[in-house]
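Table S7 (text form). Paired inputs.
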Amino acid sequence: MLEDDRPLFLQIAESVEESIVDGSLAEEAKAPSTNELAAFHRINPATAAKGINMLVDKGVLYKRRGVGMFVADGARERLRGERREAFVADYVTPLLAEARRIGLSASDVRALLTESATTATTD
């Protein structure tokens, strides 16, 4: 699962974030411990802790002393908001810039998106 060239602690953080966004790790649920993550991914517990601590710093997870880490209330919506912003920056803005360069109007782009979405759902 952890295979690309990005630092392992970032991959750990993103994996936990993905579980929150997709709903498999609910708000106020206990998050996997650093030891569980380290054992599962066969990495150093300090590396897993670094990823978890990133999420604590972001306010996605919080610690209950003596119990463990838990998903913060509102974490899912916060992460979804971050992803929406990244989606716009990474995909929508370049798409619209290219559309302008090749002479497509906003309504042309909407029509293409609608057509593509329809095609994608029927495949």
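Next pair, protein 2 of 2.
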Amino acid sequence: MSKTVQRWPLAFATMLALAAVAAGFLIGDDVVENWQLAARWTARVGAPIFLLTYSASSLVRLFPSSTTKALLRDRRWWGLGFAASHTIHLGALATYLMIGPESRTLASLIPGAVAYSMIYLMAATSNGYSMRRLGRNWKRLHSFGIHYIWLIYMAAYAGRILQPEKQVEGVIATTIFLAALGLRIAARKPRRVATA
């Protein structure tokens, strides 16, 4: 299979995030709301892309098929697609925070800064050379990073459960992210081999 075909998740995720920015500018009433919507929707675009990356190995182990095998084969590109889409989200969010009425304390920005550090470290090491050079540390880095990003998403969505206007979204998204964690836990359990 050609590299161009394998790279399609990266292009798809980037175009989806750019479309989310464009939608924000089409629907918002002013430039502040434009960037607010762009930041919100690029984050939502990133969530399913992240979940595909997070769940790929678990899905192929629990439900082996040509579809789940293709997802696992392209997982690196889904991960890079998430990094690209979330870079667009970062740009939209930073712009909104600079021009909008909301202010954030430095302490409130630290969890997100760590998440972005993980995103870029994993993206930079998503290649065979880094895997060989880092050895077991490569797996440790990627395992910690992907679970940390999962935790950030979970915290954001779980927090919405306490907000009446966002409660439905919070419950649905929290359930989906918990289910993704459940898949990973289930996939780690040794499978029993049937005996005659």
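The chain has nine helices and no strands.
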